[in-house]
């Protein structure tokens, strides 16, 4: 008799072809023209802003500083280390020595690929901010040489720094950085010596022409640093109290969704608030970590390639997985990755194998080809929830966009942003569910 999971997969294979088609254009390579965005957020009651790849032509501040694939993969390893370090530190109070990698702020944030445009202050100053689910404290550059449009708190009639004794300052906890001139200071540690420091205050945040957030709490960074891509700061979308999601919970509920576009030549969206209907979504229970409240987790049960379950033992996924917007490549437990790589290679025998590229070791040579046919990949989550990956969410630079996680026991694996492309991912803390809606952007 078929299990519930197998029945669901069989239904998916009937509805969707087991063969995924993929374009050979490198998904990270900028195209000359921004395609007309096909944005279809599910929520009509929340606040929706356009979300774009920061190196593509759809970016509000496109950059010519796009990293090479090698540089990007190196930065991605730093990002994965950063996420892992948060859990290791929360678990035993120390950081593993192999994860304290000296770097610069630019390198540590090199994998934050998606940006939104918002307004801060009165009068409104337009800001291009990278979104990050692995951080809670939002911040922008203030009165520095960085960024495309700078916010100057002295010119905003609604800006107010927090005093050192204000509750908003106290709740920063380990993110607090003491007091300067009677004003609250913050510190966000990104990777070893890389951090963002400055004054913590509040001002009006303009999301859309009709949606504003009064007394939005954020950091005003005045120390120099480089963030490639001409962006103005970070919008923290984590689950702790300082994040934009938590700050707007009274208005939109503690829920938000996003959709990463298939390539950097099109746009997606970020929506604050849960959809009015779950039609088109499948959902799985959300897992939270008390020692790392920033993160949103899910439980993988299995993986299918071309509709065939790999039958990975449940114990392999027992540490769960983080849904990450800032990590590019998904990191799977080694036994799960080995099974996926073997099955995927078996479906790619018509193509020549290529040498590994940095952390990617399941690679192919597509020289001279204009299109390819690749096996489909389905992630199966707790409750038998099966999510087919888009063709653009399987390969990167000619390689399978997964890697083995080099993590100690008790540290979760990571679902990266490549695998989330074109899927509206709903993170609903209030209902404790993670939803997926395919083909949303």
TrEMBL record:
Keyword list, A-Z: Signal
Keyword Transmembrane helix among record annotations: no
InterPro entries tied to this protein: Aspartic_peptidase_A1, PEPTIDASE_A1, Peptidase_aspartic_dom_sf, TAXi_C, TAXi_N
Protein name as catalogued: Peptidase A1 domain-containing protein
Gene3D superfamilies: Acid Proteases
Transmembrane recorded as keyword: no
Highest taxon in the source lineage: Eukaryota
Family listed: Belongs to the peptidase A1 family.
GO biological process entries: proteolysis
TM helices/strands, residue ranges: none
Signal peptide region: 1-22
Polar residues: bias regions: 38-47
The Peptidase A1 domain, residue ranges: 114-437
Gene Ontology terms for molecular function: aspartic-type endopeptidase activity
Species annotation: Lolium multiflorum
Span list, region Disordered: 38-66
């Amino acid at each position: 008799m078929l299990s519930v999971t197998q029945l669901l997969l069989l239904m998916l294979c009937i509805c969707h072809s087991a063969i995924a088609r993929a374009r050979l254009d490198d998904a990270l390579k900028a195209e000359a023209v921004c395609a007309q965005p096909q944005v279809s957020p599910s929520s009509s009651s929340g606040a929706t802003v356009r979300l774009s790849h920061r190196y593509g032509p759809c970016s509000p501040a496109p950059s010519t500083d796009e990293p090479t694939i090698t540089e990007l993969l190196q930065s991605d390893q730093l990002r994965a280390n950063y996420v892992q370090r948060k859990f290791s530190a929360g678990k035993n109070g120390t950081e593993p020595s192999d994860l304290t990698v000296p770097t610069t702020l630019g390198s540590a944030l090199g994998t934050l690929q998606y940006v939104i445009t918002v307004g801060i202050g009165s009068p409104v100053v337009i800001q291009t901010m990278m979104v990050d689910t692995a951080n809670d404290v939002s911040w922008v550059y203030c009165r520095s040489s960085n960024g495309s449009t700078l916010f100057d708190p002295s010119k905003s009639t609604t800006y107010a720094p927090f005093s050192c004794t204000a509750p908003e300052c106290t709740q920063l906890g380990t993110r607090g950085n003491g007091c300067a001139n009677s004003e609250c200071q913050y510190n966000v540690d990104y990777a070893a010596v890389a951090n963002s420091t400055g004054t913590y205050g509040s001002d009006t945040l303009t999301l859309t022409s009709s949606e504003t957030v009064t007394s939005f709490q954020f950091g005003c960074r005045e120390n120099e640093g480089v963030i490639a891509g001409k962006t103005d700061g970070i919008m923290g979308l984590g689950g702790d109290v300082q994040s934009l999601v938590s700050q707007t919970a009274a208005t939109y509920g503690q829920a938000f969704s996003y959709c990463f576009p298939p390539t950097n030549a099109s746009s997606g969206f970020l929506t604050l608030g849960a959809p009015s209907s779950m039609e088109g979504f499948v959902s799985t229970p959300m897992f939270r970590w008390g020692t790392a409240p920033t993160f949103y987790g899910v439980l993988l049960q299995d993986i299918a390639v071309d509709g065939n379950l790999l039958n990975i033992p449940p114990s392999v996924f027992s540490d769960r997985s983080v849904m990450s917007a800032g990590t590019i490549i998904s990191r799977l437990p080694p036994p799960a990755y080995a099974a996926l790589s073997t099955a995927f290679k078996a479906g790619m025998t018509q193509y020549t194998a290529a040498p590994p590229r940095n952390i990617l070791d399941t690679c192919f040579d597509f020289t001279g080809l204009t299109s390819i046919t690749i096996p489909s990949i389905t992630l199966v989550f707790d409750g038998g929830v099966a999510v087919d990956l888009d063709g653009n969410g399987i390969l990167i630079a000619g390689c399978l966009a997964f890697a083995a996680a080099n993590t100690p026991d008790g540290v979760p694996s990571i679902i990266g942003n490549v695998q989330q492309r074109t899927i509206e991912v709903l993170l609903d803390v209030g209902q404790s569910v993670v939803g997926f809606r395919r083909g949303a952007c």
